[in-house]
Amino acid sequence: MTVRVLVCEDQALVRAGYTTIFSAQPDMEVVGEAADGRQAVEQALQLRPDVIVMDIRMPILDGIEATRRLAGPGVDNPAKVLVVTTFNVDEYVYEALKAGASGFLLKDAPPAELINGVRTIAAGDSLVAPAVTRTLIGHFAERLRPTDTTRPALQQVRQTLARRELEVLEQIAAGLSNAEIAEKLCITTETVKTYVSRILTKLDLRDRVQAVVLAYRVGLVVAE
Questions:
Q1: Which architecture, in CATH terms, is 142-218?
Q2: Could you tell me the CA-to-CA distances from 33 to 6, 8, 36, 75, 93 in Å, in that order?
Q3: Can you name the residues that pair with 52 across neighbouring β-strands?
Q4: How far does the chain reach from its first CA to its final CA, in angstroms?
Q5: Nearest to 104 by CA among 38, 42, 92
Q6: Crossing angle for the helix pair 189-202 and 208-218, nearest 10 degrees?
Q7: Rg (the chain; Cα; Å)
Q8: What sign results for the dihedral spanned by CA atoms 36, 121, 143, 160?
Q9: Using CA of residue 29, residue 102, residue 15, residue 69, what is the dihedral sign?
Q10: Distance CA 43, CA 125 (A)
Q11: Ranges for the HTH luxR-type domain (predicted)?
Q12: Do 142-218 and 3-127 have the same topology in CATH?
């Protein structure tokens, strides 16, 4: 299956680099390019790419708002957005993930990592490295602390998920990979994948990123 990619980046040289990298892959096709957020939204709605590679800081409409319009809450058939940013701990990245991005990478990531990222998101998985997840959660711990208004949501999560599923969700929120979760809980990686799929389905979440944010927001896991 060919992965159709839309490249959204305001710097022409960087945009050309992405296009060259993706076009060289036998399983990828760059179907469009956008130099600002408004173009990104227009082309995404017109072309319906499998993955949108989105820069955060763009003119006219920034990547966060563009992502929100394409993949945010209430959007029918949300797009799969891979945010690419200069900073690994950046408030804009956190906001982009809340807006519906399926993951993010740094701009200085090697081409192989960028290619793998697009394939990962096209396959329906999220892409947030465990170490980066821990850093983001630590950086924004205060805003993710549960409040009295989130207590009912926590109770609902506990009632919805089985005990083992809750354990897996806690480990996801801690930033562990599937392999690390499997080792810690003494189960196979395939079993972990099954649990993750069940968690996302039961809680009506699109991907692992949303699961991490929800776990902290309702207080299932509390940032230190």
A1: 3-Layer(aba) Sandwich (3.40)
A2: 6, 6, 9, 22, 21
A3: 6, 81
A4: 43
A5: 92
A6: 70
A7: 17
A8: positive
A9: positive
A10: 23
A11: 154-219
A12: yes
Structure tokens at 113: 């990592």
Which one-letter DSSP state was computed for residue 174? T
The runs of H, that is alpha helices, within 102-223 are: 111-122, 130-139, 151-160, 163-173, 178-185, 189-202, 208-218
Q: Are 214 and 205 in contact (CB under 8 A)?
A: yes
pLDDT digit string (tens) for 39-90? 999 999 999 999 999 998 899 999 999 999 999 878 888 899 998 877 655 5
Kindly report the backbone phi and psi dihedral angles of residue 34, in degrees, each rounded to the nearest multiple of 5, phi listed first. Answer: -135, 140
DSSP 199-218: HHHHTT-SSHHHHHHHHHHH
Which strands, in side-by-side order, build the sheet including 51-55?
28-34, 3-8, 51-55, 81-85, 103-106
In the block, residue with structure tokens 């409409």: 61
The token duo for 131 is: 């170490």
Domain boundaries, given as residue ranges, for the chain:
3-127, 142-218
Pairing, β 51-55 against β 3-8: parallel
Q: Class for domain 3-127, per CATH?
A: alpha beta
Q: Where is pLDDT greater, at 191 or 146?
A: 191
